[in-house]
Amino acid sequence: MDEQPSPPLDRRAELSEFLRTRRARLKPEDVGLPDFGRHRRVPGLRREELAQLAGVSVAYYTRLEQGNGRNVSAEVLDAIARALRLTDAEHAHLTHLAKPKAHKKKQQARPQQVRGALRQLLDSMDGIPAYVGGRRTDILAWNRMAAAVFGDWSELAPQERNWARLVFLKPEYHDLFVDWEQKAIDIVCLLRMDAGCHPDDPRLSSLVGELSVKSGDFRRLWATHDVKEKSHGVKHMRHPLVGDLALQYESFRLPDDNEQSLVTYHAEPGSASAEALRLLASWGTDATRAGASTPQ
After folding, report:
1. Closest Cα partner for 250 from 130, 150, 137, 135?
2. Quick check: helix, strand or coil at residue 265?
3. Which region, left, alpha or beta, applies to residue 67 given φ > 0 means left and ψ of -120 to 50 means alpha?
4. C-alpha separations of 6 from 9, 194, 203, 252 in Å
5. In whole angstroms, what is the distance from residue 97 CA to residue 99 CA?
6. Which positions ≥6 away from 115 have C-beta within 8 Å?
7. For residues 216 and 204, what is the distance between their CA atoms, to the nearest angstrom?
8. By three-state DSSP, how is residue 7 classified?
9. How far is CA 75 from CA 81, 85, 146, 153, 242, in A?
10. 75-79, 103-107, 134-138, 205-209: which range is least confident on average?
């Protein structure tokens, strides 16, 4: 029996909840408004306070927060973004939700492809764990060192090569990341941004539905409606074979496909983590299999 496609995410509901949660995190004193100490039925700013800050009518803002973004101008969205103290990523997400671009179904159904030259680049990066990520946190291509550090993704079915599924549904990834909570937050924020750009993507809807059913942690984090994009940082991991790793990562959007990113990891020269990477490089993908059979 063919699997029934998941219904698209409700863009109006997404817009409504995003605005409501952003308003709830602000207090009057945060934005220079007096707080007279009156009992507040809801956390954060009231709608009329936010409307005042943005310079729009309460009725207009209320319609927008109820999910009606039809005919809203870029100038009004900019004013609301300033009033809500949105980050650049949050501002972009608000714009995608309120003024969605038309996407052709054929374009949405087209599989993500990694250029051959980019695959060659991955293979040539000796000693550097690297992979190409795509929409929905899919893992599209990787090199030998990425397999040694994160696991041999070639042993997984293509639909399972996805960071959200790995982080929320695979216990070994809970053990791998020292700060698993932050890794989980980062993944959910990326999925939220993707949902804002592609609310009609059935595969994304199916992924969100599956994770919502199977993971309480995912449901909790998805309900925050947080969005952000991290292009660099440090990840601390506990590898089953070589122990603690502190790896700096860099994420580069591809100029010819901004829905794909090249992500690389490296260790500080001369550090214990650099030596651990050299050891893993000597084992390659065999390190993953050996680690899987190593007593914890």
Report:
1. 130
2. strand
3. left
4. 9, 16, 7, 31
5. 6
6. none
7. 18
8. coil
9. 10, 15, 44, 45, 53
10. 103-107
Instruction: Report which secondary-structure segment, H or E, holds 71.
Output: none
Quote the Cα angle for 264-269-275, to 5°.
85
DSSP 109: H
Q: Which two tokens stand for residue 115?
A: 């250029």
Tracing tokens 């059913």 back to the chain, one arrives at 213
In the 8-state DSSP scheme, what is residue 177? B
Task: Quote the Cα angle for 223-166-191, to 5°.
Answer: 40
Token pair of 70 as six digits? 């039809």
Side chain identity, residue 235: K
Residue (of 222, 198, 229) closest to 91 by Cα position: 229
Degrees to nearest 5, angle at CA 79 with 75 and 81 = 115
Q: Is beta strand 130-133 parallel, antiparallel or unpaired with respect to 257-266?
A: antiparallel
Residue with structure tokens 């070589």? 242
Beta bridge partners of 252: 262
Residue with token string 């998805």: 222
For residue 123, give the nearest of 150, 142, 149 by alpha carbon. Answer: 142
Report whether 134 contacts 111 (CB < 8 A). Answer: no
| Res 104: pLDDT | 47
3-state helix, strand, coil in the chain (%, to 5): 50, 15, 35
> Tell me: the pLDDT tens digits for 245-280?
999 999 999 988 889 999 999 999 999 999 999 999
CA dist 123 and 145 (Å) reads 9
For the entire predicted model, the pTM comes to 0.84
Give the amino acid at 88: D
